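G., the chain you wanted modeled:
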Amino acid sequence: MQLGNVKKTGGIMNKKRIAVVGFGQRGRAFVTLAMQERERVELTGICDSVPERLQSFARQQHCTAPLYTSLDKMLDETRPEGVVISVPDFQHAPVAIAAMEHGCAVLLEKPMAPTVEGCREIMRHAAKGRGALLGFVLRGHPVYRKVRELLDAGTVGQIMNIQADEELSVMHGASYMRRWHRRVANSGGFMLAKCSHDIDILSWLAGEDPCRVSSFGSLTFFTPDKLEHEFCSECPDRNCRFRFSGEMVAMNEQEAASPSRYGFDRCVYTKDKDVIDHQVVNFEYPSGVTASFSLDLFAPAARRRLKVVGSTGYIEADTRDLTVGVTFSDGREPRTFALEQENPSGHGGSDLTLFRNFIAMLDGEQSGQAGLEAGLASTVVGVAVETARREKRVVELPPSAYELN
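Predicted structure as tokens:
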């Protein structure tokens, strides 16, 4: 499949009618991509519960797409072929189901839903829609695609172990302590909310889903005993390294002028959260492959690193440096691959790759991106990880755990 092709009917480009629901940081990114891909996409509507946020963006970006606060009204009036969904995680299922019931394909931000039943409910309605992709952008990242290519070629022999870690910049990590993600009930837990595509990429590389997981993690730094003021605007400490400056949120002028009124600059030490601030996870797969994953919220810059150990060597990868290296244990010379970001979009260019795959899917082409089955599997594992951490035990995941039921 060649991405980006535009089908024509009678010499006229057959643009795909796409709407976006949820206009936070990720929704804004997808609207921007749709505007960039205007030769292939007609942006039929943007829906969000905060009209001022939509109007602010429309003024700034000269966006002429219709703006809605009612999902049903937008779907009824604009009749999109595809809907990009980037609402908070706990709203994924009802919004995806509504879009599917209107006969739309969906591009659903990760995770698919914060509960296994929510994922299954989406899948039960999938036949009413035109297909679905999950926002597991790492599958389109040049580094992970190269690693998968090397594994498929048997470059390091039999896969034995995978080691992965995600490093979040200080302010990115801190943002999860003040946004809606801070409550497990909204997100299913930090690992599912932030790292569901890391869970997916490990299974994608291993070629199977885990059969057992264990996990350790807790909240030991962003603790409420350090709380002095509920909001940054109330706090006299101008040198606090976690002081809110608008990161990781999309605000309109009114919200930016008074962030405390809307809860944006909540102190990171707030009392009403129950997420962790560090975690490690172990996975075992049916073939015997093992994997480990660690989460760091205090890194100087965003980065993911990966090591895949095989029977004849190992592969090391780094998303910040865009490098993949192979070291052999059988006497062969090591190899290094210096990769390039393929386009200027987010996640190493993977955002645009994902969006173009969605356009191609609307054209009836097969996509290499993750679908609903992968979304369900990632949530099954993410929920098991949170259970293992909370209950301090190994959680078994039989094949039936991944079934629709």
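The CA atoms of residues 256 and 402 lie 43 Å apart.

Shout if anything looks off.
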